[in-house]
């Protein structure tokens, strides 16, 4: 076997040892594929008619072959692709009309249809010149169809051929993979500590201009599993967006549509207060807006109070 060796362990079973060099090659190839998929998710590549390939989410027909030319031969396991619904609408059709077609094709229930329609009506109003911002929470227990609804939103944008205006995020890698999105930290460039203890920011200095271009064309921002979103992280998100979208006064720096989804009976934030926490307004200056000294407990409480306003 290239890159490893096989031996019998005395029990009749064969164990395979893979050398460190091979493991590094596998990891490097996985990292390359991850970056390519991230670029596809973020809309960094020139867009063609990709609605029938799945390439808009980085999982197209040719995705399995990208970045693996240097790998040793590995037995592949076939993984079925998720079910897809393709909607064809007339050019220039409204988001609301696209939502009606998607809702019928995907047999959304009454509440799902209502939630999708609210989002699309807000997007149409924005196209018509209205400046109002649409902030929406979609909740429900497990199995109520929140992920199906998120996928329906994606189908609407795909039908309108504007998938690059939508960003789908979640609070964990597993949750993000389930909705073919990315993590909130990756999307907005939040700094976090990795397994080795090093501080990481996934929007590198060399990519900041591209990140700005992407975020300035966004019209909808989805965050799934917000039961895991702490108030301090929400504050950081709202502070990070000005760098990406400009210093606008509105919540989330003027993103036309912001959608939070979750089940608050599931996981809670780690070492942070939940969005549902009872936080009092903390006034520290004559106008009630000046933050306390950096690094103090009062500053933490002030940030939590500021984030609570967004919720």
TrEMBL record:
<feature type="region of interest" description="Disordered">
    <location>
        <begin position="283"/>
        <end position="311"/>
    </location>
</feature>
<dbReference type="InterPro" id="IPR027417">
    <property type="entry name" value="P-loop_NTPase"/>
</dbReference>
<protein>
    <recommendedName>
        <fullName>ATP-dependent DNA helicase</fullName>
        <ecNumber>5.6.2.3</ecNumber>
    </recommendedName>
</protein>
<feature type="compositionally biased region" description="Basic and acidic residues">
    <location>
        <begin position="298"/>
        <end position="311"/>
    </location>
</feature>
<dbReference type="GO" id="GO:0043139">
    <property type="term" value="F:5'-3' DNA helicase activity"/>
</dbReference>
<dbReference type="Pfam" id="PF05970">
    <property type="entry name" value="PIF1"/>
</dbReference>
<dbReference type="InterPro" id="IPR051055">
    <property type="entry name" value="PIF1_helicase"/>
</dbReference>
<feature type="domain" description="DNA helicase Pif1-like DEAD-box helicase">
    <location>
        <begin position="130"/>
        <end position="274"/>
    </location>
</feature>
<dbReference type="GO" id="GO:0000723">
    <property type="term" value="P:telomere maintenance"/>
</dbReference>
<comment type="similarity">
    <text>Belongs to the helicase family.</text>
</comment>
<keyword id="KW-0547">Nucleotide-binding</keyword>
<feature type="region of interest" description="Disordered">
    <location>
        <begin position="42"/>
        <end position="64"/>
    </location>
</feature>
<dbReference type="GO" id="GO:0005524">
    <property type="term" value="F:ATP binding"/>
</dbReference>
<keyword id="KW-0067">ATP-binding</keyword>
<keyword id="KW-0347">Helicase</keyword>
<dbReference type="InterPro" id="IPR010285">
    <property type="entry name" value="DNA_helicase_pif1-like_DEAD"/>
</dbReference>
<keyword id="KW-0234">DNA repair</keyword>
<dbReference type="GO" id="GO:0006281">
    <property type="term" value="P:DNA repair"/>
</dbReference>
<keyword id="KW-0233">DNA recombination</keyword>
<dbReference type="GO" id="GO:0006310">
    <property type="term" value="P:DNA recombination"/>
</dbReference>
<keyword id="KW-0227">DNA damage</keyword>
<dbReference type="GO" id="GO:0016787">
    <property type="term" value="F:hydrolase activity"/>
</dbReference>
<keyword id="KW-0378">Hydrolase</keyword>
